[in-house]
Predict the 3D structure of the following.
Amino acid sequence: MPPPDLAAPDPVRAARARHWRRTLRLTAALLLAWFVVGFVVTWFARELDFPFLGWPFSFWVAAQGGVVVFVVLIAVYARRMARADRRLADEARPGDEVPRR
Amino acid sequence: MTLRTRTFAPARSRFAPLRGPDFSRRLHWIYLAFGLAFLAFVGAMALLEHLGLPRSWIGFLFLVGPIVFYAGIGILSRTTDPAEYYVAGRRVPALYNGMATGADWMSAASFIGMAGTLYLSGYGGLAYILGWTGGFCLVALLIAPFLRKFGQYTIPDFLAARYDGNLVRVIAVVAAIACSFLYVVAQIYGVGLITSRITGVAFEVGVFLGLGGILVCSFLGGMRAVTWTQVAQYIVLLVAYLVPVAWLSIKQHASPVPQATYGYQLQKVIASEKRLQADPAERRVIAVFQARADAYDARLADIASALAAERSVATRRVAELKAANAPQGDIQAAERELARVPRDADAARDEWTRERDADRERAQPLAGMPPHAQQFAGDPHGDPAARRAFDESRRNFIALVFCLMVGTASLPHVLTRFYTTPSVAEARASVGWSLLFIVLLYLTAPALAVLVKVEVFDALVGTRFDQLPAWINNWSRVDPSLLQVSDVNGDGILQLGEIRIGGDIVVLATPEIAGLPYVISGLVAAGGLAAALSTADGLLLTIANALSHDLWFRIVDPKAPPTKRVTVSKVLLLMVALAAAYVTAQKPGDILLLVSWAFSIAASAFFPALVMGVFWKRANRWGAAAGMVGGLGLTLYYALVNQPGVREAFGVTSPVQLWWGIQPIAAGLFGVPFGFALLIVVSLLTPRPSKAARDMVDEVRLP
């Protein structure tokens, strides 16, 4: 692996730092959603027992709803990160010496 | 042929292998053709069955046919190029890596075990659904893209580069082998079970037959062969899972998509549960079991005299029969009875305690199964015992979900799959595809459990013993631990309490329960086999690569030429496979339990080091080493002290000490946070990591 170009010009480094901060924010937001669906709803499963499309709600979340939310979270992450990557490529363009792999 | 583009090419090929959209288009055609060929194969089998081909032949063909397919792919993908052997040339498109990961991930435990667990434990089993899907969020967000950016070959590679050297590499190798070996034993067990059921050979023979099927896929072509067989295996296992369930569902409530409609069947189960709990015949069965348990209790109170009495009764019976010149068969039966009397007081105590516990377990309402939709045991508004039961059950559910999620994000054989995509963006997308393909099956398993329950509660229970459906006899012959019925209360009618069912049977017997032609049973067996083979392949490859790439090449002989590295890998693969088959032939028990253990081990060994390696630059080798060893150590300690079976194996006699009532299966709940804490504290107490390691963090964070 080539070493990262730490001598990259400041605007490029700043763009990279912004990209990483965006990654962190997105990751934190999606992990929060993941936590709520996976653990908070589950913790209150007994209370969330109302009927929902024929299932008790918390049973439905554990068997279907939560699972579908997980797929959606990953899809959102992949799309938003692809957009962030393009943004980074745009912002970092002035310095042509940016190593692209 | 696409798959052999680089077969005979030197390590640095002048001929660029196909990549990108062209490659994808080609794969679409290949696998479309494969899917159609497979359907044609199933159709041909159905026709042959109709024409009167015996069942044993159909079963055999279903076993051999797909394996020949896989072997063909394996042989076409043979390679000696390390990049091809270890990471399939890094040109697996996201969609296909998703399918391969789906097959890699879904093991015998998902295919065979999960619906059974859901059948037996209702809501409690949903921990597996939630945990095994939610874990992919962690893979996508915290691990896969960074691993792909790093772009080497194994998980120990990543950890060694990030944590400056071979200390962490060796720890990672040991942990990777430990969890993968446990897991692969469970897979080969599943293979043996299916093979012996379909062909009627002994379990041990089935294990070694299945091993042949595993090796043809991975031996010649490593990751490249495994990837392309796994895609095919995914198609087989998905078809095999969905077809019988859809069929059963159409027959039962005229809906071809039970995933969307089984809520109404669940209501039916809930109503039947109320009826069965109040049924006087069920209560009589329970009373019989309770009486048996009490009788064992009485014997256990005074073992010496009870044992003497039992022996004298049995001896007298033999003598009487002999004196009366009874038929030889009767005398032999009585002698066998005498031989079964426990040898001494210790043996008697063990045996009677076991029998008593088994009887007690069956002296429960609904044959010991909790009401299907009831979240957690106990009652938050009941007496203190019920409140405690509720709290512990809820805590254990959450703990298990946590361990399965974190374990998913730490299992080396799954994570290595994300090295094989062409780019970071495709790695991210491929986690999404993986989960989508997995979810197709995971949404179906809870539906299947409910449908089978409707069938058992409403159709089977209440049948006269002389009119039981044929599948009951078939399966109780194969393995009494899977299914056993006996007329306990002597009324000639089957009660729920008189059925003893092992979870694995739910999927394997579904076609027969639904009254489908035998060809569908063959299809299910082929699917189960595909699930077990694909996972076993991924695991064996991981173990062999940890040994050959990480230990031998990286530490012992770094100057080895590429071809030699691959050869060593292949030899080790063979040895590991034989060792795993040998262990499996000793029948080490419950598939799902073995697998769950692998999760806790992987979670506590890898997760903190992997995540902190990317998200915390200050983490260093001493912290990582301490965190991995400490986390793993705590998990193993908790298991050793508390897990029945493990306790006996290591002669642990100290009392069981559960922390907050957490079952040992979720030991990772303690191991993971402890690993994080150690990693942070020790890192802060020791010098910061090298510049190379810090640069690597910067590098992997970039897309």
Chain A has one domain: 10-91. Residues 37 and 66 of chain A are 6 Å apart (CA to CA). The interface with chain B takes residues 1, 3-4, 6, 16, 19-20, 23, 27, 30-31, 34, 37-39, 42-43, 45-46, 49, 53-56, 58-60, 62-64, 66-68, 70-71, 73-75, 77-78, 81-82, 84-85, 88 of chain A (CB under 8 Å).
